[in-house]
Amino acid sequence: MSQKNQISIKVAGAAGQGVESGGQGLAKALRRGGLHIFGVSDYMSLIKGGHNFFQITVSDEPVYCNTEKIHILVSFDPQQVQDTVPHIRELHEGGIFILDEGAKVDPAMQAAIEEVGAICCPMPLVKLATEIGGSRIMMNTVALGAVAGIMQLPFEALDSVVRENFAKKSTELADKNSQVAKSGYDFALQNLVSKFKYSVKYDPAMGDKMLINGNEAIAFGSWAAGCRFISFYPMTPGTSVGEWFTKRNSKIGVVTKHTEDEIASICMAIGAAQVGVRSMTTTSGGGFCLMVEALGLAGMTEVGVVVVNAMRGGPSTGLPTRTEQADLLFAIHSSHGEFPKIVLTPGTIEQCYEAGIRAHNLAEKYQTPVIILTDQLLAAEVYDISPDKFEIPHIDRGKLLSKEQLDKLESNYLRYEFSADGISPRALQGHPKTVHAPATDEHDETGHITEDAANRIKMMDKRMQKLETARRDIKPPEFIGPENADLTMIVWGSTYGVAYETIELFNRNPSNKQKINALHFSELWPLPKDKIQQALSKVKFAVSVEQNYTSQLATLLRAELGYEMKKFINRYDGRPLTAEELCTQVQEIFAQSLITA
Amino acid sequence: MVITQERQTVTAKDFKTEQKSTWCPGCGDFGILSAVQMALVNAGVAPWQVLLVSGIGCGSKLPDYISANGYMTLHGRAVSIAAGAHLANTDLVTFAITGDGDGLGIGIGHAIHNMRRNVDIVHIIENNEVYGLTKGQYSPTSKRGFKTSTSPEGSIEFSVNPLALALTAGATFIGRSYSGDPKHAAGIIQQAMEHKGYALVEMLQTCPTYNKTQNNDWYKEQTYKIEEENPSYDNTNRLMAYELSQKDDGRYPMGVLFIDHSRPTYAEQVPALQQNKAALIDHSLDLDSQLFEKIKASYN
Q: Does residue A357 belong to the interface with chain B, where contact is any CB pair within 8 Å?
């Protein structure tokens, strides 16, 4: 098997210049042309200026993470092209650097271009945009046209996206952008395409595919599973889960509430869930910190509420727009006292959609809070998915009593009735036979406050039994790559993608004699211990790979199962791990262990 | 509240519970409990039609001592939880019941924001001007100079003026009554229930353990009914209400200080609750498969 044939494109510029929307548009166009796509934006915590980029990797095979090296670099910003020096260094030999002809190529840039053997292609981006009466900002569209030209993408694929994106604003703007995209495209066909030695094969029969990011998939899955209430306070990168709903709230029948703070967010969601509506909130680590007292209320009063924590670099404000996996142990142990909670850690877009569904089903089934841990990378990444991967979900409301069942109820309703599985039949308030008032204090089966010691033990046992019952319901980790391998990366959450590509890169290289795989956890708490042990028994050499400092999953597996990793790989600079660096580290581990063996 | 459900014939007996109270003998909370019960009976709201959400504190144990739907929650968060519950089920007559520390100390932010949103709930602040359950510390409404374990030389803070605060924040009903006059209190609570929008009721109350000077005799001296002292008082006049709320003679005007019928409630403006007027809890969970496919197609 030969290495993957892929091309990477980076679009760079200042915030406010359309890097994100331009990048998204280009990804969509290349996808429609018949390529597999992976794309993610990298941005700073500011509104205007700074230096942002959007990177796309395309291939004739599915792609799950970006490459370190790129083939095409586009600068949207004639003033700040100097900022692109680090990206120029990422260019492959023969890679193309597109910038406006008016931009100054300073000696540092020139040196970088020569160093990597890239081809500098100044072109009339601004001129082509303005000569037809367009505005200066349309140089972005010219540049995207040029990239499409270099990539020999059929123009219709780009044109359809450009027209769709601008038609929302005006037909005139759509026409003009289409026109300038064509001039950029034609310019590239005449002047640039012959200089570019890389190519990928388009599959025009690829059919419909979705480009949807992790946060959108979580929101979509939640809605499909019947979530009808979301309250949240804006915090990057959790906000876009909420915005998926607010953008559509008049159409999809969901009550959305942007609250005064995160405490109010979770409290409103708990209030809504208590009376029986599937409810959620979304935030990032700092906001989650504020929510944890109320999480205990949900645990104590057995209210199923869903909380999305899209992790970013911490602690405190940390790296607000960057990725990290450092909240795992915090999420599992969040809030004081002991109560059951469920923690899901999706790693792919499909798993994000699934997690949205699972979270709401599990929250109602176990009547306890469910946390979806995602992170900035997964929140923002897109890759092509077949639409049939998102199925209409089955809604499981657990032991919720129907109106008809309640009408027939003969004895007094006990909200916290003791049961073997720890789960009590649940009736909603608002029916003549179910009057009850749950207390956040320790309570008896009716919900009334009591400090009785014997009751305390029984009630604690009941709640904690739910954790044992849920344990059987939690998905075991899954192997990525071959079942049998000499080395296994132990991963969770968003590192699914990089683990997948590392395995491809390593195992396809004929000079590597060994094989590697990965064991990925997409649901983490309560740990399905037996199934995990079964999986771990197949692992010969475990390497913990996490985007944090302290290897939190490894810590958890050591604490819960006494399992020891052989090696640890950590990245905590806020940037996503790459397959190239992981591959190198894996090779080093093999080299070292040969020495020690 | 917009009371959407059919009124029921209920009596005090319907709200009786066997649960033993832990309140001190002579606690003002007894009066407030009977006022709430009386208001529900008079309004014809049955135990299953109401939701009494409370925070933490002596008075927040109220839902434990009445047979009615309740939810005893967290210190400072009752208003947010009540607001969420209300939006999810607008058919339940929803109360937030807090103390002065709960509602005006730790939870003041939530109170202000839900007042300006005009969320259609009744918020009762049981104000005894002291922290009781934590055993006698000064509260946001304690008078300057009040000596407690955390202000042994007398509080050096000026106290919160709940009525003026609610007026500024945008509450559309502001009432005040007193635990020693349950009949009057029940009347104010019932008016608050019938009011469409955020209804704040400040319920002055005695704390015989930690605020001994402000006993029933003292309150009888210090309180007066607005309409008795000023028959021409117009409680729809915001400026008049401001003036009264700022009157600094140490006495407490009681009654309906302010009422505003002009503002829509929060729920009345929520698109999802307007397109389908049934309570959210009664909306179908079935997926609109056409819409589902349309959303998927938008990502192509």
A: no
